[in-house]
Amino acid sequence: MTDCIFCKIASKQIPSKTVYEDDDVIVFNDINPAAPVHLLVVPKEHIPTLAHCSERHSALLGKMMLLAPKLAQEAGCGYDGNEDGSAGNGGFKTLFNTGPDGGQEVYHLHLHVIGGPKPWRGQR
Ligand code: 5GP
Ligand code: ZN
Q: Motif Histidine triad motif residues (predicted)?
């Protein structure tokens, strides 16, 4: 997609603060962060929205989700709860906005990973 901002970032036509990259995804800092940590996990393939995904994207979506806790940990907002989720500190949000009513502004699939010490926008 020649006019897509995230395709341009993925192909390095536009610079970004990249924190992780492999053959399938690129992860960079959101230009307008909602919190101390705000990463975007972006597939290199141009897929407009989560609603455009099918079975063939299962592995990619799994990779994106599993990257979130690792990247959050590296960015300083990992969750350190026990096996049962008790007594933990830290943590982060994972978010796919889909379509206009879902608040999507960039129509290239991306997973927001948002966290850091509270309070921040949208967090009490
Ligand atoms: P959406 O609302 O589509 O889920 O989120 C799009 C996100 O992309 C927004 O949080 C916005 O700040 C971010 N964004 C838009 N353009 C750019 C850009 O050129 N570079 C970076 N790093 N982030 C962008
Ligand atoms: Zn794109």
A: 108-112
The ipTM, to two decimals, is 0.99
Task: Indicate the residue type of 25.
Answer: V
Residue nearest ligand 1's atom 12 by CA: 32
Ligand 1 site, residue 97, Cβ cutoff 6 A: yes
CA of 119 to the centre of ligand 2 (A): 32
Q: How far is the CA of 121 from the centre of ligand 1 (A)?
A: 16
The whole-number mean pLDDT for each consecutive block of 10 residues of the chain, a chain of 124 residues, reads 92 96 98 96 98 98 98 95 84 97 98 90 72
Return the DSSP state at 28: E
State pTM to two decimals. Answer: 0.95
Domains: count for the chain: 1
Q: How is the chain split among helix, strand and coil, in percent rounded to 5?
A: 25, 25, 50
Residue 32 domain-assigned (yes or no): yes
Catalytic residue list: 110
